[in-house]
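My hope is that you will study the record closing this message with an eye to the fold:
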Amino acid sequence: FTTVRLPPKLPTPPEAEAKVYAAYKPVARKVWPMAEELPPGADERIERARAEPRLRPAVSIGHRFTEATLAQLRIGGDGLLSEPEVALFRSIIRPLGRAFAFDDDEIGSVDPRIVAPMVIFTTAHVPWELKLLPIPRAHYDKLLELLRA
């Protein structure tokens, strides 16, 4: 994970830190989608992926709000919301508790009953990159004229 901080010009209290669970991927390691026919036997692989057991049950993924965890959320702390607005927001957010994670154990994945697991097919190929042709500045206008014609 990566720790993200606010810009140095702003005062940064310790609670202004956030954890981002993402990794930087250079362009050279990016996987580009290709318009290609699925390999033979793809349907069987997809069905097997649907039948595989999950690492943990979907019911245990996510957070159930309690009064203590609702109190941890700073809702309307800067005085912009009135008390009825804060109460309304808490009543709206309470059923959506599984969308939040207060601990690393509560971070889960999409419910497999809603979205089927993905099987990503890849194609073996040799990576390549086109090099730009150097164009002298003196010939640039002439080249543009030729390309537009």
User: Anything to note?
Assistant: The CA atoms of residues 33 and 122 lie 9 Å apart. Strands lie at 2-4, 18-20. The radius of gyration is 26 Å. The first helix runs from residue 42 to 51.
